[in-house]
């Protein structure tokens, strides 16, 4: 089956490809090589963070790939202990990545476990200056998002959280949607029992792996997802989820994994 075009989500400020390469725990040459390999294979979304310590390597991979910068959606994140030093941290990220802007900048975790509207206000300011195209948060609760909106009048474009069939929560999806906040999942495979009978059965139907079913489930829910790998065969296999789609019934059956787990 021919691969379909990469689906995207329209964020305020930028369109994010639903499938990206995660780079958590990717270090040194591995991070640079994984980035360049993913872009060569057809990825156009790379996710990193100041806290990963690999922005310079990701930037090197981006440069070595030869893919024009404006064709790549690049995400990085502000560590919670850098609250109050937002501009300095972003400038360091841009230098490491070798770019004059990032497409998405996230507050990686709530600073001191608090929503911290002052940081969010600075995010808005730096976005408005053109250093960032879209801004969001990671690991925030709905209540913390409401606090940001109450203080600034603007919701995050996206919330990046742990997400997998086991984590599926229809109420959380609805709560974020009601606030105009898109959902992006991380650790999709680490958090999944890939031997679950439902995943195994659906995978057999499509002639794919359970891991590919999990990634496709994200896409069919219009949830962005960033599986991490430094191995070419795995990076390629993750992208191959564009070659099939789940039926609504299959999606519902996979949703039940989370309902039952809850």
Shape: globular
Derived structural class: alpha/beta
Query: What is the H-and-E element order?
Result: EEEHEHEHEHEHEHEHHEHH
Q: What does the radius of gyration come to? A: 18 Å
The fraction of residues in strands falls at 15-25%
Mean pLDDT score: 96
> Fraction of residues in helices?
40-55%
Q: Please mark out the parts with pLDDT under 50 across 5 or more consecutive residues, or reply none.
A: none
Distance between the termini: 36 Å
Helix count equals 10
Strand order of the largest sheet: 3-4-5-6-7-8-9-10
Biggest sheet, open or closed, and with what strands and sense?
8 strands, parallel
Number of beta-strand segments: 10
What does this structure look like?
The chain is of the alpha/beta class and 262 residues long. Helix content is 43%, strand content 17%. The radius of gyration is 18 Å and the shape is globular. 42% of the residues are buried. The model has no long low-confidence stretch (mean pLDDT 96).
